[in-house]
Amino acid sequence: MDHSSTEQRLLSRREVATLIGIPLSTLKYWAWADTAPDGFPKPVRVGRLAMYPAHEVREWVEVEIAKAQASARDVPTRRVVAAKVGDRDG
Known about the structure:
CATH topology: Multidrug-efflux Transporter Regulator, Chain: A, Domain 2
CATH class: Mainly Alpha
Low-confidence stretches: none
Strand content: 5-15%
Mean pLDDT: 85
Oligomer: single chain
Number of strands: 3
Shape: elongated
Order of helices and strands: EHHEEH
């Protein structure tokens, strides 16, 4: 069994925060208050360290990207109409 594979790799809190683009303090708060977004992986304790399985974090990111893309497709586009200078009601 290859323990260096991505499936077995653990990420530090700092690595996870950097990967998903949030402050480290937010990630710590999510773990402390149990307020992480739905589906976000729970940290694994390794001694005193809180670590995150890399594959679970990457899966969560992929799901969030897919949700954002689906949501963007569902947003109706607005048609912008340019007004001439001087065209005003009133």
